[in-house]
Amino acid sequence: MTGTETQDEGRLIAGRYRLERRIGGGAMGLVWLAKDELLDRTVALKELVLPATLTAEEAEQARKRAAREARIAARLQHRYAITVFDVADDGGMPVLVMEYLPSQSLAEVLNARGPMPPAEVARIGAQAAEALAAAHEAGIVHRDVKPGNILLAEDGTAKITDFGISRAVDDGTLTGSGALAGTPAFLSPEAARGEKPTAASDVFSLGATLYAIVEGRFPYGDTDNQMALLYAAAAGRVAPPQQAGPLTELLGRMMSVAPADRPSMAEAAAELRKIASPAPAGERRRGVVLWLTAAAVVLVAAVVTTVLLVRNGGDGGTAAPPAPSSSAPAPTSSAQQPTSSTAQSSPATSPSTTTPPPPSPPASAPAGGAPTLDPVQFMREYYGRMPGGTDVGWSQLSPTMQGSMSRAYYVNYWTSMSSFRVVSGPELVGPNTVQSTLDFVQNGRHYHETHRVTLVNSGGRLLVEHDALV
């Protein structure tokens, strides 16, 4: 902290906001923790800082733009957006008074944790998209969606901040000196070409942001050459994602070069919600339960009817007295035999003479009982029990693999498939590395993917260590 910033601690702004300590900031401004002494609440204050290269006229225009953008941002009230309470004046410069959220930006989280699991990314993206959709509905375009402008609270809630504020300070991709005003890593192609950003531009930038936190790299490539990034952005040259899993197809549409080919922000939010918590899987499970319950009721009714017919001699009269007890059940005619496949496979014999079939070996082990150490056979068995065998499948993931996702995400990923088959492979392509081409329908969408799976031997059993799209 500089001496000037130390002197600013305790300073009163607009007669009511007392600066306590600096909590963030960058090229466009400083963020302070402050106390609103009028309402007795903690707030965050953002002091805007103008580039020193601006002329007096340019600086005045920037101040007016900043005040205008702040007032526009204050119109948005949404649970997944940082609320702007007030626009105060500090010596002619607008100061944003905002909701204070103990949090880290996604940029900070990405630096600390590395890439995040697709389900978590989809949840964060859905919340940010809902706030942006509400902004678009109100006629507000963010224009600077990036990991640094999405905050992640301690409880995992995502909130987007800085609606148009940093762009208001420098209203262009390049400053008059030719220096870049911020990174173009998340710019839409049209914005990189100097066209006016629109709601579709926000959709692209959110897609690029989600790409970065699920892949751990920029969509236009990892380079410090800002001009090279800008040219790649203008051309829309995006490297295909490798770790996005169920997000892959949606990210591709959100980052379409043509704005008309992108979904609306509301559509993106709905699809991200489905990926984060696939509803169809739960609905199918409920449907199966209801179907089995109904089938059981019908079966019981059929059995009861058959018993009554036997006791009544088939004539529908009053039930006859019970037959004398016997160690064996009374024989029935062939016309009275139940017709269900279960009944046909279980003939009416005395329980003492029925030998139950031996239990089947676990799906994770070959007939001999020992787990296979053949990588190809392991993956053949692994895929063979999917999409329903998630209990065994989860147990066959290494601690590293399990640590990269939640069990709920793993289960949802597989159970949201309505069909699944291996169309080629598995085949060994390296030491303990197996490649397979999979064809499946997930949440109503068709996928054809080649997966390269790396296995590790842990205590005499193979486990999935890494699964990458090829």
Automatic annotation (TrEMBL):
It holds the Pfam family Pkinase. Keywords: ATP-binding, Kinase, Membrane, Nucleotide-binding, Serine/threonine-protein kinase, Transferase, Transmembrane, Transmembrane helix. It comes from the Bacteria. Residues 17-275 form the Protein kinase domain. Residues 317-371 are annotated as: Disordered. ATP binds at residue 46. Its EC number is 2.7.11.1. Residues 354-364 have a biased composition (Pro residues). The chain crosses the membrane at residues 288-310. Residues 325-353 have a biased composition (Low complexity). One of its GO terms (molecular function) is ATP binding. This is non-specific serine/threonine protein kinase. It comes from Amycolatopsis sacchari. The lineage of its organism: Bacteria, Bacillati, Actinomycetota, Actinomycetes, Pseudonocardiales.
